[in-house]
Amino acid sequence: MSAITALLAAVFVDLCGVALVVPLLPLFAARCGLSVAGFGLLQSAYGVAQLCSAPLVGAVSDRYGRRPVLLGSCVCTALCYLLLGLGGSVELLVLSRVLA
Question: I need a surface site. Which of 66, 76, 86, 87 has the fewest CB within 10 A?
Answer without folding.
Answer: 86
